[in-house]
Design a protein that fits this description.
The complex is a heterodimer of chains A (269) and B (203).
Chain A lengths: L5 H27 L3 H22 L9 H23 L4 E2 L1 E6 L4 E5 H12 L5 E11 L2 E10 L5 H19 L5 E6 L2 H4 L5 H4 L5 H33 L2 H26 L2
Parallel strand pairs in A: 5-6
Antiparallel strand pairs in A: 1-4, 2-3, 4-5
Helix pairs in contact in A: 1-2, 4-5, 4-8, 5-8, 8-9
Chain B lengths: L2 H5 L3 H15 L4 H26 L9 H9 L1 H4 L2 H23 L6 E3 L6 E5 H16 L6 E5 L3 E6 L9 H15 L6 E6 L8
Parallel strand pairs in B: 4-5
Antiparallel strand pairs in B: 1-2, 3-4
Helix pairs in contact in B: 7-8
Classes of the chains: A alpha+beta (269), B alpha+beta (203).
Chain lengths: 269, 203
């Protein structure tokens, strides 16, 4: 997701392609059609004399040079500047600022790092997710949050999406608004080297699989609660609201007690 | 979360999501665009330098612009017509490929999910491993016995059964159909199931 001018990319490639096509076709035609080369020679001779006439007819003062050449040089410099702007605008549009509100007493902004620290931890608690990455981008006057998920091999993208949507829902509640979110699910290098989920490895085990699912969902619930805690603390710190910070810490403590309980349960399996 | 929640319409984001998903699933053609821009910058800068050197009466870096122009115009007398024709055709073919590259959709190996609260784009490889796992669970086969290839509109499922244990093709087909339906991707996927005749020994 970026502000790359795709239409311009394609137009440029198209124009260059057409120029090469026309040039190549003209050369090939001149070489293959009888009389073509003679036509080229005549054309070249007349073009040469026409060019010489034009350069003489456009003198710049008494310098002896044509102003056409100076204009050409200026056009060249302009073209270089435009081309460099074109190159450096490719892939732009990413931003650190997730939310920016200008109120009566000042401007408040929320950095994407807040979302990142809250959401990544919650998402990576899910067994089917290997890693995640959160970033934000400006697109058409709106800020879009992007959540990249690297899925474990064999995990259903549908299940991952439903879990991500749950976490996003909690994030929305925390933020007090719904930012547009793009979720991309891939099975890249990291997921190729990861083990498949236990559930798929141990299909024949039956009961144990069910137990695994239950305890996994407990963990997820805790992680989501943790998310709300972390988020509250982060927002509290950003706004110097001590009450909110304290509240966030309390939420996290609650979650971490539950987490310990889970670990104990795991240990006794 | 239920299906209803996933498909709840949010009109405010619909157009934005459609745009994002389209940009995500199609190539921006940035690589070639940047390459040509850089080459063009170098060529223009070189031509400019040569022109200034020529105007000042200094020796050229590579070729003086006047000489280059003259030899381009005199090309038919200097080069074999056959070589000229071949070069011309090669340049025209490169031009044609560029035109095709500019006009072709440039689809990337992704599918879009239904937009709900979030917009979704899924890598074809993630779809393939998911379908393979689902077939594996349905047929109790090892992961390397199920090969799934996901294309733009097609899913190809190849199953190598264990020797002596025939695989129920209908069960495989049902598993694939169910998973594709559950994913509800766009463009929609059609699938073919092939059970290979030679089995795996001792899997």
């Amino acid at each position: 997701m970026n502000t790359t001018n795709r239409a311009l990319n394609r137009t440029g490639i198209l124009l260059l392609g057409l120029v090469l096509l026309a040039l190549g076709a003209a050369v090939a035609l001149a070489a293959l059609v009888p009389g073509g080369l003679a036509f080229w020679r005549d054309g070249a001779a007349s073009a040469e004399s026409w060019l010489a006439d034009v350069l003489v007819a456009t003198p710049l003062g008494t310098s002896g040079h044509s102003w056409l050449l100076i204009a050409l040089a200026a056009a060249g410099v302009l073209a270089i500047v435009l081309l460099l702007v074109f190159v450096f605008r490719q892939g732009g549009g990413s931003t650190r600022t997730l939310v920016r509100d200008a109120g009566d007493i000042g401007v408040s902004t929320i950095d994407v790092g807040v979302a990142e620290s809250a959401i990544v931890a919650a998402l990576e608690a899910y067994p089917g997710i290997v890693s995640t990455h959160v970033s934000s981008h400006r697109l058409r006057r709106s800020t879009v949050m992007r959540i990249r998920v690297n899925a474990r091999r064999g995990t259903s993208p549908r299940d991952i999406r439903e879990y991500v949507d749950t976490v996003v829902g909690r994030w929305d509640a925390l933020l007090g608004r719904e930012l547009p979110v793009l979720v991309t699910i891939s099975a890249g290098i990291a997921s190729r080297f990861s083990a498949t989920t236990k559930a798929t490895d141990e299909t024949v085990v039956g009961n144990q699989e069910k137990e695994l699912t239950v305890s996994a969902s407990d963990k997820i619930k805790n992680a989501a609660e943790d998310l709300v805690g972390k988020g509250k603390e982060a927002v509290g710190n950003a706004t110097d609201n001590d009450k909110l910070v304290a509240e966030g810490k309390a939420d996290q403590a609650k979650a971490s007690v539950k987490k310990t309980g889970e670990d104990v349960k795991d240990a006794f399996k | 979360m239920t299906t209803e929640n996933l498909t709840t319409a949010r009109p405010s984001n619909d157009r934005l999501y459609a745009r994002i998903v389209r940009r995500e699933t199609h190539s921006p053609r940035a690589g070639l665009g940047i390459l040509f821009a850089v080459v063009l910058v170098l060529v223009i800068a070189w031509l400019g330098t040569e022109s200034v050197l020529a105007a000042l009466g200094l020796p050229a870096l590579l070729v003086a612009p006047g000489d280059a122009l003259a030899s381009a115009l005199a090309l038919p007398s200097l080069v074999e017509p056959n070589l000229l024709a071949i070069t011309g055709i090669a340049v025209a073919v490169i031009g044609l490929l560029l035109v095709i590259h500019a006009v072709a959709p440039g689809r990337r190996a992704f599918h879009a999910g239904q937009a709900g609260r979030t917009a979704l784009v899924v890598d074809n490889r993630a779809i393939a491993t998911d379908i393979a796992a689902r077939v594996g669970r349905a047929t109790a086969l090892a992961a390397d016995q199920v090969v799934v290839v996901v294309g733009h509109r097609t899913v190809e499922v190849r199953v190598r059964p264990t020797s002596g244990h025939p695989v129920d093709k209908d069960a495989v087909d049902a598993a694939v159909t169910a998973e594709i339906e559950r994913l509800a991707l766009s463009p929609a996927l059609r699938h073919t199931v092939t059970i290979e005749k030679s089995g795996v020994v001792g899997a």
